[in-house]
Design a protein that fits this description.
The protein has one domain: Arc Repressor Mutant, subunit A (Orthogonal Bundle). It has four helices and two strands. It has about 80 residues and is mainly α. Strand 1 and strand 2 form a beta hairpin.
Length: about 80
């Protein structure tokens, strides 16, 4: 396989940064089976195209707020 056919898979931290979420939120979404994920050995990897396609269809802002709220953030919700 040549380099042109290799697709960059994202780590949990890279995906969290791209989605502007905490890594713990990504782990919770994995646990809830709300993100398409590949497990390579003991680590998770994400195909960005699959994640963004999946997110457009399956995740809404309310579900992300719900997962983020489980983190115990002390921030007040927006008015």
């Amino acid at each position: 396989m040549n380099n042109a056919n290799k697709k960059k898979l994202l780590t949990v931290n890279e995906l969290a940064q791209m989605l502007n979420l905490a890594p713990i939120t990504i782990y919770k979404l994995i646990e809830r089976r709300e993100l398409p994920v590949l497990k390579v050995g003991r680590v998770y990897r994400f195909d960005p195209d699959e994640v963004f396609s999946f997110a457009r269809v399956n995740l809404d802002k309310d579900s992300l707020r719900e997962v983020e709220g489980e983190e115990g953030d002390d921030e007040d919700p927006p008015a």
